[in-house]
Every structure is written in structure tokens, then in C-alpha cells.
Backbone:
């Protein structure tokens, strides 16, 4: 059975200006991720994982090539459209959580829904249910700055889920967690996979090497995808 492509990356290159010269960070990336897949993007520090995720999320633009999400070339959309698209379609769990430390857990999740333009009542419901899903409802009124690393991460998960996005991007989600919290995170990821979310996890944590629900590990080295990415390098089910 042919599956639907959720994310297609075509001939993507990214360089940054470094003084007078250009530093090429991503090299001719081609990748197709089907709806409902969980893909582990695995590479050492500096290999380009965050840069690639940021481009998929529409937070950065490719230097050349394109990213299509459900056939829509998001890398070519104007900024205003991209932020709307991102708010509805993509949940991002950032490498360093990116929470507002002085705002409560509830408020941190709530502000992610501002671009979606919902009524206040629905906003409150969605925030409450995503905090519950991430098992952090009991800290809803605590300022993020007073939460532990594992608690902050669960707020970051709740924020990523609040708009009920089809795509979840996780950037080094366990980098700041101990083993117990890392395993809890993997459990949540498994639930999201069961819900049919399309998931990309960028990591170099060996805990992700043999995820039962991951369809593929995609290795990235010096900004290039290492393997043939036709989708048959299954590591799990
Ligand atoms: N805005 C920028 N300007 C110049 N160079 C950048 C910029 N952003 C990233 N880089 C460089 O791109 C390379 C890849 O960075 P990136 O953050 O994507 O790596 P990573 O695989 O996520 O690493 P880590 O595992 O440490 O998070 C690095 O050499 C980094 O210095
Ligand atoms: Mg990174």
C-alpha cells in the first residue's frame, strides 16, 4: 500500500555567511517521511541536526532546494504564512526547551496558541488537556524557572502538543534529562506515535538506537545524510 508523504525534502542546501566566506552546513539533503512515521535523525554534535529541523519547521530558510509538507512548499511561503502554518501543523520540542522562565507552565503552553486564533475558552481547554497528556498538570501554575529539568521538558512537550499538530519535531529531547526521565519521554513519544503523529527525533542519545516504534534511523554526518533514504532501513517494526 502506498503511504502518504508528510514531509519531502528536495535537494536542500544551507550555508551561513562566516565573515567573507560561506560555511556550507547542509549538503544536498533528500528525504521523504511518510505520515505516521517516527524517524530518528542521528548525528554527532555539529552535524547539522538543529539546522535541518529548523528548516523543516519553517524557522529558517534553505539556501537552495525545498521542503514540502503535505505537498505544500513551506520553504517558499512568506513569513506570515509560515508562522500560521507552524502554529497549526508543527509541534517543536527544542534542545534547550525555550520556555519563558517567569511565566507559569500554563502560560508557556497558552502563548503557543496565540497564532492559531482560538476563543479563550478553547485555548484554556487545549492547554489543560495537553498539560495532562504530558503529565505535568500538577505544575500548571508554577513558573517555569522553578521547575526541574524533567518538569520543564514535560511543559515543552505540552506546548508542542497544544495545537494538536500532525508533526512533532524533537531536538535532542533527552539531552538535559536523567535516564528515568529519558525513558518517560520515550513512553510519551510512543503514545504520540500511536496517535498517528509524524515524528522526527534529532539525537545522539544511544537510548534511541532501537526504538520499537521508529521506522528508521537516518544518519547525518557533516551535513549530509549518509544512507540511501528510500525508507527501507527499518530498525524496528
Ligand atoms: N547561524 C549560524 N551561523 C553560522 N554557523 C552556524 C549557524 N547555526 C549553526 N551553525 C553551524 O552549523 C553547524 C551545525 O550546527 P547544528 O546546530 O545544526 O548542529 P547539531 O547537529 O544540532 O549539533 P548539536 O548536537 O551540538 O546540537 C555547526 O558547525 C554550527 O556551528
Ligand atoms: Mg542541535
Residues:
Amino acid at each position: 500500500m502506498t503511504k502518504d508523504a508528510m514531509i519531502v525534502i528536495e535537494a536542500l542546501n544551507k550555508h551561513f555567511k562566516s565573515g567573507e566566506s560561506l560555511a556550507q552546513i547542509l549538503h544536498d539533503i533528500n528525504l521523504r517521511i511518510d505520515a505516521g512515521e517516527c524517524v530518528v535523525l542521528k548525528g554527532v554534535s555539529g552535524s547539522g541536526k538543529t539546522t535541518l529541523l529548523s528548516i523543516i519547521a519553517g524557522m529558517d530558510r534553505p539556501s537552495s532546494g525545498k521542503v514540502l509538507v503535505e505537498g505544500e512548499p513551506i520553504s517558499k511561503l512568506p513569513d506570515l504564512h509560515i508562522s500560521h502554518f507552524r502554529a497549526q501543523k508543527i509541534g517543536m520540542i527544542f534542545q534547550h526547551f525555550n520556555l519563558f522562565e517567569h511565566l507559569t507552565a500554563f502560560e508557556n503552553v497558552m502563548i503557543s496558541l496565540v497564532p492559531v486564533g482560538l476563543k479563550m475558552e478553547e485555548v484554556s481547554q487545549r492547554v489543560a488537556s495537553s498539560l495532562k497528556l504530558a503529565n505535568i498538570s500538577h505544575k500548571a501554575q508554577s513558573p517555569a524557572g522553578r521547575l526541574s529539568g524533567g518538569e520543564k521538558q514535560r511543559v515543552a512537550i505540552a506546548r508542542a502538543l497544544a495545537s494538536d499538530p500532525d508533526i512533532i519535531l524533537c531536538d535532542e529531547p533527552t539531552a538535559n534529562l536523567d535516564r528515568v526521565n529519558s525513558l518517560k519521554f520515550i513512553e510519551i513519544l510512543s503514545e504520540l506515535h500511536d496517535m498517528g503523529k509524524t515524528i522526527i527525533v534529532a539525537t545522539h542519545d544511544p537510548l534511541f538506537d532501537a526504538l520499537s516504534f521508529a521506522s528508521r534511523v537516518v544518519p547525518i554526518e557533516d551535513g549530509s545524510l549518509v544512507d540511501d533514504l528510500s525508507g527501507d532501513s527499518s530498525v524496528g517494526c
User: Anything to note?
Assistant: Residues 16, 18, 23, 25, 43, 45-51, 95, 172 surround adenosine-5'-triphosphate (ligand 1) (CB under 6 Å). The beta strands are 5-18, 21-34, 38-42, 64-69, 72-73, 90-93, 167-171, 198-203, 216-221, 224-225.
